Amino acid sequence: MKKNLIFFIVNLSMSLLSQDKNSIHKAIVWRGFDHQWTYNHRINRIGSMVSMNEMGTFVGKHYSASGAGRDSTTFRQYHTLVESQDLFFFQGNHKITLTGKEAKLLTSRDNIILTLPKEFQNCSRAEVILNGFELKSIRRSDKPVHFQIHTSNLVFDSVNHCAEFELQADWVGNCETMECAMFSNKTEYEINIPYLIIGYRRNRTELELVSETESYHWTKKKEYQSTPIQKIVQNDHSKNECFAGFKSLSFTVNEEQWMQHLRFSIELLDPMKLHISMLFLDWKEGMKKYAVKKASKFLSSKKAGWVTMHSDILIFKTTNATIIHGEHSGDMYWKGRNQSAENTNSESIFELRY
Q1: How far is the CA of 337 from the CAs of 43, 52, 69, in angstroms?
Q2: Residue 23: left if φ>0, alpha if ψ -120 to 50, beta else—which one?
Q3: What share of the chain is helix, strand, coil (3-state, %, to 5)?
Q4: In the predicted model, what is the mean pLDDT of residues 3-16?
Q5: Of the ranges 232-246, 258-272, 336-350, which one carries the lowest mean pLDDT score?
Q6: Which string of DSSP letters, residue by residue, matches 100-168?
Q7: Which has the closest alpha carbon to 277: 33, 29, 30?
Q8: Do residues 41 and 322 make contact, with C-beta atoms less than 8 angstroms apart?
Q9: Which of 80, 187, 295, 329 has its CA at 20 to 30 Å from residue 116's CA atom?
Q10: Are the beta carbons of 32 and 264 closer than 8 angstroms?
Q11: Residue 95, Cβ neighbours under 10 Å: how many?
């Protein structure tokens, strides 16, 4: 096991994602993603995130790169525009590099201390949520065994407008099949974690934490069929709107597995009803038939297994806010051949319009 404990002090003047006064009351909140290849692969690069740039434009990003086999990706991103004079937003970004041996737990817990804009003095409380993630191989692609990103509760000092919290990232990867390196058992991945700090007044906004776990197994003959988890938000009727974001997400499989489909998402069916979806598929029916390149069907293979998935979701119940939920769908193409994950073909960047 590899553990890193790193201490960060970040001043607003040094932040790459500083915000002006006009943008502090609005933000884009990430509600997850759905990622599908036509057949299963090792993970070279995968991710989804949202942000607001210096021009005030909302931007979404999706990342997709497989290993040796070429393939196309279809994806969907879920997001929410939130704007309110009662809420205060600050976005940031943190990168973690995990290096070690395959099949071993690599983990990093980094303490983040921030000086927030002085407007946060108007808040009585604040919290932090994930605004996406990116998992990118540095050395070579591996099959996933375990992945987790997590943000702790935020410690907030309103007088000095300071915040402190911990970001944790875990990774276990392994590869012992013929497409993998024969004489190396090292793995190295970079995990990029965008986050969003939300300041609020206690009498105007209430929070509810929802934790959900999904466990299931599959065989080589029967594909798993998922059903979303429905969550009714408890409400005292003084708060008529809500939005939600992730505090953590993770999955663990029984052993190294190729991946065909990965999904973590929050869908809001009405102001107080959520559908939470978590899905990991090693294979799907017809993947050999529908592979984007017919030669690629020889690279796909079925394998039995099980998975446990978990997410912690923070629900903000508020009033006097503009809340608009949106989605963005797209597709990508990757040539495979173990290209570097840095290749720009692994990136899809798009403007989010409301």
Answers
A1: 13, 34, 6
A2: alpha
A3: 5, 60, 30
A4: 40
A5: 232-246
A6: EETTS-EEEEEEEEEE--GGGGG-SEEEEEE-EEEEEESS--BEEEEEEEEE-PPEEETTTTEEEEEEE
A7: 33
A8: no
A9: 80
A10: yes
A11: 13
Name the residue among 219, 223, 229, 45 with its Cα closest to residue 139.
45
Residue type, 7: F
Angle formed at CA 329 by CA 245 and CA 91, multiple of 5 degrees: 35
Number of neighbours of residue 274 by Cβ within 10 angstroms: 22
Closest alpha carbon to 67 in 40, 38, 107: 40
The pairing of strands 2-10 and 106-115 is: parallel
3 state SS of 76: strand
Helix (H, G, I), strand (E, B) or coil at 295: helix
For the chain, helix (H) and strand (E) counts, in that order, are 1, 21
**Residues 85-131: tens digit of each pLDDT:** 999 999 999 999 999 999 999 999 999 999 999 999 999 999 999 99
Which of 308, 333, 321, 347 lies closest to 148 in space, CA to CA?
308
Strand order of the β-sheet with 322-334 is 229-232, 273-281, 259-270, 26-41, 71-83, 322-334
**8, 113 Cβ separation under 8 angstroms:** yes
Q: How far apart are CA 242 and CA 244, in angstroms?
A: 7
The gap from C-alpha 52 to its chain's centroid, in whole angstroms, comes to: 17
- The owner of tokens 């940031």 is 92
Q: Residue type for 55, please? A: M
CB 313 within 8 A of CB 244: yes
Per-position DSSP letters for 60-75, written without gaps between them: EEEEEE-SSS-EEEEE
